């Protein structure tokens, strides 16, 4: 709805600006991709690929999928457009609708909007810290600073198999007690159990070995450095060894920003490092890290905390013509004023002066220009200042001067 859309526009503007301040360039990817990209990128054993994608066969018998997230598409575009050739780190951001066939509930929708970043080409833990700081900064700038930042490292293809074995040893004896989902996925992806919301499965993982104890020296060192960088910039975080996230592409760092007042769907944003994904998608070994954040959830927090500014643009002038001649005379004037950037409204129903003034009042317009037969004959217009109810008769040609006196004109439009 228009009021809500105005608030979204304001938020979107903030987000775009902050991303650009951090040196990220926008990349717009298509709404759908070949299904295979998500199957390979996100992983066959993830909830998203197993049961949440909107997948169709198109007229050419190709399987296509509405994008459930942005990372795989960004990697595809990075490879297709050979962005590596520019050298350095490719810092890309995106914004737009994503689609997941989840059970809708408060804060969880089948079409939702994400903004996110991906930094491709560097394995330096400074990039991890920068990406986390960027996410936190967005929320801070919007007035939300009491968020919980969960971080973890889920290792790499060297050390994760070790953890996987330890986890399996611990969990195999309890297969019968698990939910059907976890039973099915246990051998293929036991880490998913740490994420399961089923009470039984949660209990089974109460005393599991922690992944942070089995990290190889590379992953352990990387994680330590990340924490030092975060400490150095005053970002407070919680190490959450159970945080595994629902994508197979992650390596090393994973993180989530959580809002206490959001209820069950409390993750405002989530992300992590994916040093193997670009290779998985057919490119050369290239590290990457990023995050994505949900707009609807952000909106919910801002709304409930009264942090949304009044962003509805009110008209600056309401033109109230009385009679056919006045309507004809005012119409081109109104169009010219609008072309010059002023926000001008008028009556389009041929209503009485009283009804027009009522409309202007309802719209919250500070200036009303009334044009009746007498005024028209004299080339004048009656200006009514709605706040003081004062009126003045001025030449029609003075309209712009009056508007300029009342409002700070933006150079871009009015000069
Ligand atoms: P994700 O955790 O699936 O990560 O989604 C990120 C955020 O999108 C969530 O924290 C949440 O705010 C929002 N979100 C997800 N699903 C829904 C939904 N059904 N309804 C409303 N909001 C939702 C990713 O998508 C990864 N691609 C993040 C990433 C980028 N990792 C590395 N780079």
Automatic annotation (TrEMBL):
It comes from Hydrogenispora ethanolica. The keyword Aminoacyl-tRNA synthetase applies. It is found in: Cytoplasm. Its main location: cytoplasm. InterPro entries: aa-tRNA-synth_II, aa-tRNA-synth_II/BPL/LPL, Anticodon-bd, Anticodon-bd_dom_sf, His-tRNA-ligase, HisRS-like_core, HisRS/HisZ, HisRS_anticodon. GO terms for cellular component: cytoplasm. Residues 1-332 form the Aminoacyl-transfer RNA synthetases class-II family profile domain. Belongs to the class-II aminoacyl-tRNA synthetase family. It catalyses: tRNA(His) + L-histidine + ATP = L-histidyl-tRNA(His) + AMP + diphosphate + H(+). Pfam families: HGTP_anticodon (PF03129), tRNA-synt_His (PF13393). Its EC number is 6.1.1.21. The gene is hisS. This is Histidine--tRNA ligase. Keywords: Aminoacyl-tRNA synthetase, ATP-binding, Cytoplasm, Ligase, Nucleotide-binding, Protein biosynthesis.
């Amino acid at each position: 709805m228009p009021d809500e859309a105005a608030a979204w526009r304001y938020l979107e503007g903030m987000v775009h600006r902050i991303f650009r301040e951090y040196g990220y360039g926008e990349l717009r990817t298509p709404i759908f991709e070949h299904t295979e990209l998500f199957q390979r990128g996100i992983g066959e054993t993830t909830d998203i690929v197993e049961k949440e994608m909107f997948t169709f066969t198109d007229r050419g018998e190709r399987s296509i999928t509405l994008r459930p997230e942005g990372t795989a598409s960004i990697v595809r575009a990075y490879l297709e457009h050979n962005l590596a050739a520019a050298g350095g780190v490719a810092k890309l951001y995106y914004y737009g609708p994503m689609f997941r066939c989840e059970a809708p509930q408060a804060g969880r929708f089948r079409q939702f909007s994400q903004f996110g970043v991906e930094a491709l080409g560097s394995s330096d833990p400074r990039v991890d810290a920068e990406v986390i700081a960027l996410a936190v900064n967005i929320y801070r700038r919007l007035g939300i600073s009491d968020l919980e930042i969960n971080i973890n490292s889920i290792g790499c293809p060297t050390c994760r198999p070790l953890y996987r074995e330890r986890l399996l040893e611990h969990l195999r004896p309890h297969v019968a007690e698990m939910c059907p989902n976890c039973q099915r996925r246990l051998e293929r992806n036991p880490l998913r159990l740490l994420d399961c919301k089923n009470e039984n499965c949660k209990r089974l993982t109460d005393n599991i070995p922690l992944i942070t104890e089995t990290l190889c020296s590379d992953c352990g060192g990387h994680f330590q450095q990340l924490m030092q960088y975060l400490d150095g910039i005053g970002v407070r975080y919680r190490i959450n060894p159970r945080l595994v996230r629902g994508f197979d592409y992650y390596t090393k760092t994973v993180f989530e920003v959580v809002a206490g007042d959001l209820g069950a769907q409390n993750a405002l944003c989530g992300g992590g490092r994916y040093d193997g994904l670009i290779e998985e998608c057919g490119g050369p070994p290239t590290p990457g890290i990023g995050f994505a954040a949900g707009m609807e959830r952000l909106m919910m927090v801002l709304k409930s905390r009264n942090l949304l500014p009044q962003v509805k643009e009110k008209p600056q002038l309401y033109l109230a013509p009385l009679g056919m001649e006045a309507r004809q005379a005012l119409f081109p004037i109104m169009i010219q004023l609008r072309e010059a950037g002023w926000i001008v409204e008028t009556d389009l129903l041929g209503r009485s002066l009283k009804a027009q003034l009522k409309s202007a009042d309802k719209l919250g317009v500070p200036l009303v220009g009334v044009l009746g037969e007498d005024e028209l004959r004299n080339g004048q217009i009656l200006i009514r200042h709605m706040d003081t109810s004062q009126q003045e008769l001025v030449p029609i040609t003075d309209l712009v001067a009056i508007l300029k006196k009342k409002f700070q004109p933006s150079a871009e439009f009015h000069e």
